[in-house]
Design goal:
Helix 1 (20-28) crosses helix 2 (45-55) and helix 6 crosses helix 7 (225-239). The protein has helices at residues 20-28, 45-55, 95-113, 140-147, 176-179, 182-198, 225-239, 250-255, 270-281, 305-308, 316-336; strands spanning 7-12, 37-43, 63-65, 77-80, 119-122, 154-159, 162-166, 206-210, 243-248, 264-267, 286-290, 296-299. It is built from 11 helices and 12 strands. It is globular and about 60 Å long. It has a 12-stranded mixed β-sheet with strand order 3-4-2-1-5-12-11-6-7-10-8-9, sandwiched between helices. It is α/β, with parallel strands linked by helices.
Length: 340
C-alpha cells in the first residue's frame, strides 16, 4: 500500500445537543491527525463554529466542500447535511437534534457505500429521538448491518489488547436466554475469529467464551444453557481447529485477569461484557462493528447530556476510535495487496 495514502474518514456528528461535536472538535484540533487521515465531518457550519468558539479551539479549521467528490487532502473537510440554522441546546435532546444526527449518519453512509470514503466514525446518538422511517433500529450497529447488507455483525469493544464482544446486543435481559442457540454462537465466534485475523492481524487468534449463568451454570445447578448450548458450540469450533475456550464464569474470569491470556472475550449479553470492559478501559475504549464489509468505529460512551453544557468531555475515546478505524482500514488494504 502507498504509505503516503491518507484514509478518507467520514465522521457523523451524532446528537448535536450531546458531547459529539465537542469531542470531534477537540480531537481534530490536533493537526497531527491529518498525518493519518483526511477527516470528513457531516454536519453544518453553525454547529462547528459554535463549539469552536465555546472551546476557544484556535487550531480547529475546516474546509467546506460541496460533496465527498471534492475532498481537500490534509484538511478537515465539512460536507453540509442540512439547510438553515440548527438551534443547539446542550444537554437537552430535541426532535431537531435527532433529525440532524440522522441526516449526518445517512449522508456519511451513502458516501461510504458509494466508495467515496474508506471508513466511518460515528459520534453518539440518542436512540430515541433519531427514530424515523429510515432509522427503525436499536442503534448504529443494527442500522449499519442492514444498510450494508451484512448477514450478521458483532459488537466488539477494543482497548489495546483488550477485546470484548457480545453474542446478543441491545435487547432486554429477559430475552437473552431464549435467543441463544449453538448456531448463533458459532456464527458469532466465526465473525470474531475472522475479524481478529483480517482486521487485527492475529494469525491464530485465541478467544474465551463466557457462560450465561452464575458460575457458568455450576454443572446444571444454576442453569443448563452452558451444557446444552454454549459448550456444544465451543466443541464444534474446536473440532474445526480453532482456539476457543470456555465457558468461563464471567466474574472470576475478569477478577483473575484471565482476559490477558486471550486475544478476545465473547460475552453472552451486553452488560456482561460492557461492564467489565468499561471498568477497565472507559476513557480509551472503542466500539467496533465486526463482520461488516466496511469499517465503522465509535467511542464507547453515549451522548453524556449531563456534561454537554459544561464542555469538560474527554475526547480520548473518540480519538482512539479514529485511530483504530485508520489502522483497520490500512490492515485490510494491505491484506488485499498481491504478494510480491
Amino acid at each position: 500500500m502507498d504509505t503516503k495514502y491518507k484514509v478518507r474518514l467520514g465522521i457523523s456528528i451524532g446528537d448535536t445537543n450531546g458531547i459529539g461535536p465537542e469531542v470531534i472538535v477537540k480531537t481534530l484540533s490536533d493537526q497531527r491527525v491529518l498525518n493519518y487521515c483526511t477527516p470528513v465531518i457531516y454536519a453544518a457550519p453553525g454547529v462547528l463554529n459554535r463549539i469552536r468558539k465555546v472551546l476557544s479551539a484556535e487550531h480547529f479549521f475546516y474546509q467546506p466542500v460541496n460533496s465527498a467528490d471534492a475532498l481537500v487532502p490534509r484538511k478537515i473537510n465539512l460536507v453540509t447535511c442540512w439547510d438553515g440554522e440548527l438551534e443547539v441546546t446542550p444537554g437537552t435532546p430535541t426532535p431537531e437534534s435527532g433529525k440532524a444526527s440522522l441526516d449526518s449518519l445517512l449522508a456519511a453512509s451513502r458516501d461510504l457505500k458509494a466508495g467515496k470514503l474508506d471508513g466511518l466514525v460515528t459520534a453518539p446518538i440518542n436512540k430515541d429521538n433519531i427514530q424515523a422511517e429510515e432509522f427503525n433500529f436499536p442503534g448504529h450497529t443494527e442500522f449499519l448491518t442492514s444498510y450494508f447488507d451484512a448477514p450478521e455483525s458483532l459488537m466488539l469493544l477494543v482497548s489495546g489488547d483488550l477485546r470484548v464482544a457480545t453474542v446478543t446486543g441491545h435487547m432486554p435481559v429477559k430475552d437473552v436466554a431464549s435467543k441463544l442457540t449453538p448456531e448463533l454462537l458459532i456464527r458469532k465466534m466465526t465473525i470474531l475469529l475472522e475479524s481478529l485475523r483480517k482486521d487485527f492481524g492475529i494469525l491464530k487468534p485465541r478467544i474465551a467464551v463466557l457462560g450465561l449463568n452464575p458460575h457458568a451454570g455450576e454443572e446444571g445447578l444454576l442453569g443448563t444453557e452452558e451444557m446444552e448450548i454454549i459448550r456444544p458450540a465451543i466443541m464444534q469450533m474446536k473440532e474445526r481447529g480453532h482456539l476457543v475456550f470456555g465457558p468461563f464464569p464471567a466474574d472470576g474470569f475478569f477478577g483473575m485477569q484471565q482476559y490477558k491470556h486471550v486475544d478476545a472475550v465473547l460475552a453472552m449479553y451486553h452488560d456482561q461484557g460492557l461492564i467489565p470492559f468499561k471498568t477497565l478501559a472507559f476513557e480509551s475504549g472503542v466500539n467496533y462493528t465486526a463482520g461488516l464489509p466496511i469499517v465503522r468505529t465509535s467511542p464507547d460512551h453515549g451522548t453524556a447530556y449531563d456534561i454537554a453544557a459544561k464542555h469538560i468531555a474527554n475526547e480520548t475515546s473518540f480519538r482512539e476510535a479514529l485511530f483504530l478505524a485508520c489502522d483497520i482500514i490500512k490492515m485490510r488494504k494491505e491484506e488485499q495487496m498481491p504478494a510480491v
